[in-house]
Amino acid sequence: MTDESDHIAVRRSDATRAAILHAARARFAAEGFRKATIRAIAADADIDPSMVMRYFGNKDGLFAAAVDISLDLPDLAATDQRDLGELLVRRFLLLWEEQPNNAVLLTLLRSAITDESVGERFRTVFAEQVLPAVLRCGDPADAPRRGGLIVTQLLGVALCRYVLRIPPVVAMTGDQLVADVAPTLQHYLMSNPGE
Questions:
Q1: Predicted TM-score of the model (pTM)
Q2: What is the extent of the structural domain holding 83?
Q3: Are residues 184 and 99 part of one domain?
């Protein structure tokens, strides 16, 4: 193969992988992990199901790739401590309202309720991304409790705004959500046990 034909093959491979992931995110978001099938995802991507298996091995591998997400949480230690709650709510809203993150997060939230492996993915994101961010402010010994409480608030907003679509929550602007939710997150970020 020439260098040019190698580049074309890589571009085709990347495009096929991207098409599969796009179709998988949409199908998993709409149907959840259990109901979505490799055959349906392949049809959505306009490819043969064997190609899905070639790129991702099996449905579990495809799901893991489709819901791989980096929260890119800000460095809380480098931020004015009075602004931490607001910073987290704004980052959370941005994640939920940009592509492809919103499809990934929606898939995770819908599927976690019925599938233990998806629940485990949530716990991994908490342990690897949320907890280290929370450890950088307040009492490190209390970070797991505070981080857990932060997640309860943010997932509650996500459930009501993006899944259940509760009209007053959907109607709120980002600034309104920040004003209402940030003080609670601020309290969790800076509180000590028993407060």
A1: 0.75
A2: 76-190
A3: yes
